Amino acid sequence: EQGLQLLELGGSVEEDCIRIARCFEATRQRCCRLEQDGRRAREQLARVEAERAALEVKLKHARNQVEVEMKKRHRAEAELEKQERKLQLVLELLMREPWGSEALSREQCSVLSALAGQRLGAALAPNRRSSAVDESCQSLLSHSDISYDRTEDDVVRS
């Protein structure tokens, strides 16, 4: 609009020159503001990119830690099941052997019998979890619900 107004010169030459100078000054000031806005936007982008990179590193470490902890848990559960099987065999041996029954009192035999029944039931239970771990919040955050899809990690950023 200002450019069209400049073409419609109707006053004195001095007034037209002053109007042109003011128009150039307004344009220069607008360019300076846009340049400052661009500089601030680039600085903000650099900060956000640095924060994103730091968060990606934290995410990678967290994923690795979860993986390590899950492996430890599976090993511990396997060891627990192995020890429970050994205990079950010992209890069964004590209950079957005549010398075991004679060496133990009736009360001890009944306690071992009850314990053997509990252990056998626990060992045969499918998908059993360690009772030492409180999984009452399982519906909120279960390790089986966590996605370990790393395809987003491999995306090339432009």
In sequence order, what are the helices and strands, one letter per element? HHHH
| CA gyration radius, whole angstroms | 39 Å
Which class best fits the helix and strand makeup?
Answer: mainly alpha
> What is the helix tally?
4
Shape: rod-shaped
Overall residue-averaged pLDDT value: 76
Stretches with pLDDT under 50, minimum 5 residues: 130-142
The profile of the biggest β sheet is: none
Distance between the termini: 39 Å
Number of E strands: 0
Beta percentage is under 5%
Tell me roughly what share of residues is in helical segments: over 70%
Coiled coil: 38-97
GO molecular function, one term: GTPase activator activity
Keywords: Coiled coil
Organism: Loxia curvirostra
Q: Which features characterize this protein?
A:
coiled coil, 0% strand, 4 helices, rod-shaped, 158 residues, GTPase activator activity, mainly alpha, RGAP1 protein
Characterise the protein shown here.
By secondary structure, the chain is an all-alpha fold. It has a domain at 1-97 and 106-114. 73% of the residues lie in helices and 0% in strands. The chain contains 4 helices and no strands. It has helices at residues 2-7, 13-96, 98-103, 106-124. The longest helix has 84 residues, at 13-96. The radius of gyration is 39 Å and the shape is rod-shaped. Mean pLDDT is 76; it is low at 130-142.
